[in-house]
Amino acid sequence: MSTDMTTTGASGGGPGTPVPAKGLRAGILDLGDSVMLGLASTAPVYSLAATLGLIVAVNGNYTPLILLLGFIPVLFIAYAFRELNSAIPDCGTTFTWSRQAFGPWAGWLGGWGVALAGIVVLANLAQVAGQYLWLLVGDGSLAQNKVLVTGTGLLFIVLMTVVNYRGIRLGEHVQRVLTYVQYIALGIFALAIVVRIVGGAPEGQAFDFEWFNPVGAFTDPGAVVHGALLALFIYWGWDTCLAVNEETEEPSKTPGRGAVISAFVLVAIYVSVALLVMMYATVGSEGIGLGNEANKDDVFLAMKDVVLGPWGWLIVVAVLASVLSSTQTTILPTARGTLSMGVHGALPSRFAEVHPRNQTPGFSTQVMGGAAAAYYVAMSFLSENLLADSISAISLFIAFYYALTGFACFWYFRGTLRESARNLWFRGILPLVGALLLTAAFFISAVQMWDPAYGDTQIFGVGGAFVSGVVLLALGVVLAAVCRFLPATHGYFEVKR
């Protein structure tokens, strides 16, 4: 493990914070690569396909407004990531920043939140990738074969783990191909819808500014909150470009810019595609309508043959590419987060190992890939319903570590907020408001998940999603306590920030 230290620019509260050199390949990514990683990590095509119907079921024609409202706390936290990265461009992101602001326990639990969200969502991505690959074969019936789908999903996790292990440049090349595939296919799909709308779609609906009217939407505040929580999930992932900050040109500036740019690009994509799909398919409950219960799990799959005819398989390829792209980029931040935890002594020193030739977090990447594979296989054969509910709990993990980052930004820079209006807004007000909104989202989501009717399972009369979320988060407290007393890691908890 390297003990060299690089010092960042001034944090605004004093001298730059030392960032340990870890042996990663510095300066290999530029701003374009950073933005691409941020976009790819969110799996935009799959996120839209899987979530749009769920939001429509709750919010109807107000769905475009809900997508904008869900973006607000995400944008505010993106500014928190940018500002903290400018002061401490450490690949540990939330772990490192929370430790600097609040101490070792907050840092450890922040790192756990990032790793936990990544591991659980990888199980979901693997499942979807396995299903979509076999939808392309024959009549698609093989996608219902549990053993085949699970084996395929497991293979995808292994493959993407190897890609990440072999080097950041190889991973970037793979990302570029997958990103081009999904966006070209999504562009063709959107263009086909435009052509049909212009040609006079017989059962479509005209654009209406009422869809963006907050007064009308808030006649049911509960529906707005529910929809915004669903929207939170589809924006998650842009922070991957911050996790590769030490491998990016100008690490204190470029990753933060990439995060904000990718966040704005995402909201533009989501709102514009949602509008087109709503205008063509409507929010009705019949046929390809977005409100049709049969379509809620994947609205694009229901529309593909109607919109693209014999080329409908293109949207299946787009979703598959989107999921595979996100699978690879999800491993990136989890592996680099645990690498940083190893370097700072919060995990055993093996996690700090960087492959000398590949210049990647060798051991951390293998552990994260292995943990995701083990969780996926275990949950697939233990209970697919419980797997689905644990995936629903991801919103808790996201809200937890995003909110922690927002609070950390406010507290770390608290002494500089009066120096300028810029500092007050971007280091203080916006991160704090974003953190408060996400804290509220955390508790509202937890209350909803408590209801045994929320998901597909219930445990001791409580919703399985709530139990999964609480148990997995609580596991982080247990692991932190274990590390507190391990000879290899107890020093981390004794060093003052």
Automatic annotation (TrEMBL):
The chain crosses the membrane at residues 35-56, 62-81, 102-127, 147-165, 177-198, 218-238, 259-281, 311-332, 360-378, 390-413, 425-447, 459-487. Keywords: Cell membrane, Membrane, Transmembrane, Transmembrane helix. InterPro entries: AA/rel_permease1, APC_superfamily. This is APC family permease. It comes from Arthrobacter sedimenti. It is found in: Cell membrane. It holds the Pfam family AA_permease_2. PANTHER family: AMINO ACID PERMEASE, AMINO ACID TRANSPORTER-RELATED. The keyword Protein biosynthesis does not apply. The keyword Transmembrane helix applies. It is a multi-pass membrane protein.
